[in-house]
Amino acid sequence: MKILLANVGNRNINYCDKIYSVHSQNDFFSSKSFRDFTKILLEQYDLEKERISLNILPDLIDHLKQGIDQIILFYTDTPEGERNNQDTVYAVQIVANKLIEMYPAISVEIKAVKCKPTDTDALMKRYRMYLRAVANMPDLSFIYICESGGTPQQKTALRLVSEFVFNPDYFKPYTVEVGEDKNIIVREQSLIEYKNVIVEEQVSALAYMGEFNSALTLYKLRNTVSNNKPLINTLEFANALMNNNVKQAVSIAATNFLGKATVDPKIKEQFLGLTCFTQNYDAFSSLMSLNNYLSACVLLSIADWKYNTQQYGEASLFYSIFIENFLTSVINYAAPEFEVDVYGDKFQKFLHALNNGEIFNNFILPDSIDLSKLNGANVPFKIALAEAITNPICNTITEEIKTVNSFYLRNNGNSQTVGIDTLRNKYAHEGKLIKEADFRPFVAFGDKMHQLFNLPPTGIFNQIIQVIYEIMI
């Protein structure tokens, strides 16, 4: 089924070859509002129909010549108490009557838009309701939109909602204009700029929420006209970071941005956060590899982002991942010939080296940890190993980690016995909702880590989002 959607306005009707005007010398027009005029005309339709003709829609219908099956007309019916002198509640019935007479094979429906015809938000809500129903029609094959007729706000609302609701391959907008020599011109309107505006608004909204992969997928899927390579690369870079894929992020940065004279230096400076991370690597170079350091910075940035966007369960998860990754990185760097994240015989080999004093000479086993019962390195054991590393910044970070770990909180007789690992388990394994009050005891830990790793004050992801906005302007 092919459907034509159109707003009805006061230019759709001719009476005695004239369009309604409050300034007309015709007494039948001048003493009445458009609403009152069309009400009287409808009441006297049978007597007056020979003097009534239509503008706009017949020209479009005849131009299309593609067998329109149905026309849906939208009319305004302003709520009581609001100014309603331009309402088309009666005009639409006149237009429908004439169309049925002129095109008996086409069915005509009328739909009320019961809000102020200048309120774009309210109009969009009502159009969205109607257009969703149209989009779900099982036999729908094509949509035509008449953009001539109705208020400017109606035209905008109908067009924007159509862009969201209908597949762009199956609808076309048209305007009907009067040329300089009074001839009628029917124009198919381009969808390019509308599409770009809508897609970029959606991309901005998704990026603002940190949904970089969704933003990237949407942009590639919906933007079939322009190819904003810097935007695509930035979204890919941000998505790699948000997924803690440092290797991929470095590759994207090196391939598309670093060392390229064509790239705006401001963009490089603002969003290639790897550079601001590496500025502080010297302080960690004796503790872990550069890649592990970058991964720690990224994990902290993700955790900070989750907290700042009120995703407290996700924040507890990523702070916990940061803690485990940091501990594993410093332990493996201190004893590169042995792996700590192993199980069974390999872990026993690690314990044998530890007990023989081959590694971590300063290691002190907490009383409540029984090595004979360990089949792998848990977090409390890793904390004890990290404490044995003689390095001021490592010692500082490890002490901070102990303040948020359930095992050490209990061992130290702390009144706060729920660690961030407990929150992580409730969220990740039990599916529990983590509220702000639950996470509040761990905010200071996040702030301290942010400071020790010298992360950007506003956060790397906020910097990236700012760049995305700038690229799309």
Describe the structure.
With 473 residues, the chain is an alpha/beta fold. It has 3 domains: 2-189, 3-Layer(aba) Sandwich (Rossmann fold); 196-277 and 464-472, no CATH class; 280-453, no CATH class. The chain contains 23 helices and 9 strands. It has a 6-stranded mixed sheet with strand order 6-5-1-7-8-9, sandwiched between helices. Strands 3-2-4 form a 3-stranded antiparallel sheet, covered by helices on one side. Helix 8 packs antiparallel against helix 9 (212-222), helix 14 (290-308) packs antiparallel against helix 15 and helix 18 runs antiparallel to helix 22 (443-452). It is elongated, with a radius of gyration of 34 Å. The relative contact order is 0.08. The model has no long low-confidence stretch (mean pLDDT 85).
